Amino acid sequence: MDFISILSIFVLACFVGYYVVWSVTPALHTPLMAVTNAISSVIIVGALIAAATAGVPQAKWIGLVAVALASVNIFGGFAVTERMLAMYKKKERKG
């Protein structure tokens, strides 16, 4: 595939992702975050495999960057999910 085809697929995926995320009702955001975390986990596994089998040193560095960014996405997703779930918990009354 040439660069224009790959770029076109990337741009279309960005638009589809944007409209899918912003059209989700608030009640479904927590499950959506869980799925996003699972996808990032798959990205980490793929990046580790790609970096391990790469013959070019630059590919190993790109794999390391992919692992780091996906890790930030996973931990950030868990933090946001935890905050969202905390909003639904009943607060204890004192006094």
Sequence-ordered SSE layout with sheet pairings:
Elements: H1 3-22, H2 29-53, H3 57-88
Catalytic activity: NAD(+) + NADPH + H(+)(in) = NADH + NADP(+) + H(+)(out)
Membrane topology: Multi-pass membrane protein
Domain NAD(P) transhydrogenase alpha subunit C-terminal: 7-90
Structural features:
mainly alpha; 3 helices; flat
Q: What would your notes on this structure say?
A:
The protein is an all-alpha fold and 95 residues long. The chain has a domain at 26-87. 81% of the residues lie in helices and 0% in strands. It has helices at residues 3-22, 29-53, 57-88. Helix 2 runs antiparallel to helix 3. It is flat, with a radius of gyration of 18 Å. It is a multi-pass membrane protein. It holds the Pfam family PNTB_4TM. Keywords: Cell inner membrane, Cell membrane, Membrane, NAD, NADP, Translocase, Transmembrane, Transmembrane helix. It is an enzyme of class 7 (translocase).
